Amino acid sequence: MREQGVDAITVQDITERADVGHGSFYIHFESKNDVLVPIARDHALRFSLQLDDLTGKYEDPAAAFATNVRHLFRAIAGDPLWSYFIFRSGLPNEKLREGIGDAGRRDLEKGYTSGRFLFPHVDTVVSFLLGALVGVLDDVSRGILDERAFDTATELVLRVVGVSIDEAAEICGRPLPPMENGNRKSAKSEST
After folding, report:
1. Could you say which DSSP state residue 80 is in?
2. Domain limits of the chain?
3. What is the pLDDT of residue 136?
4. N or C, which terminus of the chain has less Cβ within 10 Å?
5. What region, left, alpha or beta, does residue 162 occupy, with left being phi > 0 and alpha being psi -120 to 50 degrees?
6. What is the mean pLDDT of each run of 10 residues along the chain (192 residues)?
7. Alpha helices, DSSP H only, in 56-186?
8. What phi-psi label fits residue 115: left (phi over 0), alpha (psi between -120 and 50 degrees) or beta?
């Protein structure tokens, strides 16, 4: 799918590559788009583990959260399969949430528990964050915004959760530390 693009791939291509019959495919999936959910989920989990390695030692939950969100924006924008999953798969929101992963919720809860973030309900903030993520990514992909919007949107999210205007700008203005291109396996892979 990454090599040829999702639109060019058929269920026949998938079953041939996986060496399974059409019947077996349809026992597990309704369409080729449903195949994207476990792929995106595994990709998101591996990416989240890489982010944990990068920001796990940060003392400030706001700096860790901002670094993670800024990297997530760039990773999705740079991956045609992940972008397709979000914008064109037509899958319901709960499957999109599943594919993106739970790192954002976890980081928000850490910030709230520490007293660094102030908000009344984590689910509302997660929904807001997902909407912002998708909206900004869509506008960048269509050329309406440039990639600076990734940092601006992250700054706005920090402000929503209670970080001051000046501090949110300072945190998001920091150079983004590079991610290692490591091959860290998912928790599922590590346990087998």
Report:
1. H
2. 1-30, 33-191
3. 93
4. C
5. left
6. 69 83 84 76 82 90 94 88 74 61 81 93 87 90 94 96 97 92 43 32
7. 61-77, 80-87, 93-100, 103-113, 122-141, 148-160, 165-173
8. left
Q: Assign a CATH topology to domain 33-191.
A: Tetracycline Repressor; domain 2 (1.10.357)
Distance of CA 104 to the CA centre of its chain: 8
Quickly tell me which residue has 């709230």 as its tokens: 112
Return the pLDDT at 117: 96
- Is the whole model's pTM more than 0.70, yes or no? yes
| d(C-alpha 156, C-alpha 159), whole Å | 5
Supply the pLDDT for residue 101. 60
Structure tokens at 36: 């994207």
Q: Write the CA distances from 89 to 26, 41, 51, 135, integer angstroms.
A: 17, 14, 25, 16
Q: Which of 165, 164, 174 has its CA nearest to residue 66? A: 174
